[in-house]
Design brief:
Elements lengths: L1 H6 L1 H16 L13 H15 L7 H6 L10 E5 L3 E7 L10 E6 L2 E11 L3 H11 L8 E4 L7 E5 H4 L16 E6 L3 H9 L26 E5 H8 L9 H12 L3 H7 L5 H21 L10 E3 L2 E2 L2 E2 L2 H9 L15 H26 L3 H4 L4
Parallel strand pairs: 1-8, 5-7, 8-9
Antiparallel strand pairs: 1-2, 2-4, 3-4, 6-7, 10-11
Helix pairs in contact: 3-12, 7-11, 8-11, 9-11
Bound molecules: adenosine-5'-triphosphate (ATP).
The site of adenosine-5'-triphosphate has 12 residues, from helix 5 and helix 8.
């Protein structure tokens, strides 16, 4: 919707109107429809996963009683959509750019959060950018693309390719109107093509991710969801903790498989998704490594998450939690003792009381022989 608004604002408003009309006639308490910002998308995704992972709830009475109790840290959020991608995490460093800085007070604790949303770096728009940046200069109607499995073919047109605002600046009238993309299935060449959409030459801050965007040093664990999960799940890389090299090896193997073989093995997966797993795998590695700065050492800090406790990881739950004030800024007043400690103390004092009474009774009781007058 953010892209549509850029290319055709009237159409974007018509979509919103249609959504409004439909939801107004539903039994829900409809409060309006709007296009959220990329920053909101990052923030709500971060709230969702930390809420579902129980990272916000810190029972202060338990914390006081157990000196070695590990303080719950939040997890960073990595979201990959079709049009945009977001990175959000708590940072102890100075956030040099205001646009990337968020402050939350949740359950009585302050969080300084870094977030950035890269529009045009969702996996569909990144594929489009990659194609445009690597178009051959010749007027050939066949384009060989290493990011598709060998034997794969797809028809496209210049008007379709340049229809997105992410690439319209490169639009050219040269070249064929219609063309065919033919896969050559080469992971290393694909990765080189993908790298061309990341600009790391300028940085107006002390440190950047890419395209001149500020990013502090990566901090803590990360949960990666949406398309990060869909793609890694297909490649069977979500359950086991594979090293970065093993992950690259798995994607390389997939890219080198002939398309016929892939299609026969996975007849039920949508052709659009299936045909793009080689590109998507190479893109995810490049985004995480070259873009955000993950490496062989901190790769283990990333978990690929589909559902957490039965709920989808994504921005929508976080949005709802915020709108309905389900996460209060302050901790609800807690009793001085936790329930467990209270019950424990009650049992202890009851036993102690019985013990005292028993001791008194035994101490004041006359021996039986004395009672009967026998010495
Ligand atoms: N099973 C799957 N395998 C591969 N890709 C998938 C699968 N299911 C969905 N996708 C793709 O993953 C991407 C992310 O989907 P999602 O619905 O999270 O994002 P979106 O709403 O399109 O993103 P954005 O926030 O950028 O608009 C989309 O490009 C979607 O087509």
């Amino acid at each position: 919707m953010r892209l549509l608004r850029m290319s055709n604002n009237t159409l974007a408003n018509e979509v919103l109107l249609s959504v409004e009309n439909t939801l107004r006639s539903s039994p829900f308490d409809f409060q309006g429809a709007r296009i959220i910002t990329g920053q909101d998308e990052g923030a709500y995704g971060w709230i969702t996963i930390n809420y579902l992972l129980n990272n916000f709830v810190q029972d202060s009475s338990v914390l006081n009683l157990l000196p070695n109790f590990r303080k719950v840290e939040t997890s960073g959020a990595l979201d990959l959509g079709g049009a945009s991608t977001q990175i959000t995490f708590v940072s102890n460093e100075d956030i040099e750019s205001q646009d990337n800085s968020l402050h939350f007070r949740l359950y009585g604790k302050n969080y300084n959060v870094y977030t950035h949303s890269f529009l045009c770096y969702g996996k569909d728009q990144a594929l489009r950018q990659q194609l445009v940046k690597n178009l051959p200069s010749t007027e050939n109607s066949t384009i060989f693309d290493p990011c598709f499995n060998s034997g794969y073919r797809r028809n496209s047109s210049i008007s379709e390719l340049y229809s997105s605002p992410c690439v319209s600046e490169y639009s050219t009238l040269d070249g064929p109107i219609n063309f065919e993309i033919k896969g050559t299935g080469n992971y290393h060449l694909c990765k080189a093509n993908v790298q061309s959409i990341f600009n790391r030459t300028h940085c107006p801050y002390s440190q950047c991710s890419f395209n001149g965007v500020f990013q502090p040093v990566l901090q803590g664990k990360f949960g990666a969801f949406s398309a990060f999960y869909f793609v890694m799940d297909f490649l069977k890389l979500t359950q086991e903790k594979a090293t970065l090299d093993e992950v690259k090896e798995r994607i390389q193997q997939h890219c080198s498989r002939p398309w016929d073989e892939v299609k026969t093995e996975f007849p039920k997966i949508k052709v659009k998704y299936l045909s793009e797993y080689c590109f998507s795998g190479a893109y995810i590695i490049t985004l995480l490594e070259l873009g955000y700065g993950f490496n062989a050492d901190n790769w283990k800090d990333i978990s690929f998450l589909g559902k957490i406790s039965g709920s989808d990881a994504g921005w929508t739950l976080g949005y709802m939690l915020n709108l309905t004030n389900m996460i209060p800024a302050e901790l609800p007043p807690s009793p001085p003792l936790s329930h467990g400690v209270y019950v424990g103390l009650m049992v202890f004092f009851s036993i102690f009381l019985v013990f005292i009474m028993l001791t008194c009774w035994l101490g004041h009781r006359k021996p039986r022989c004395l009672q009967k007058g026998i010495i």
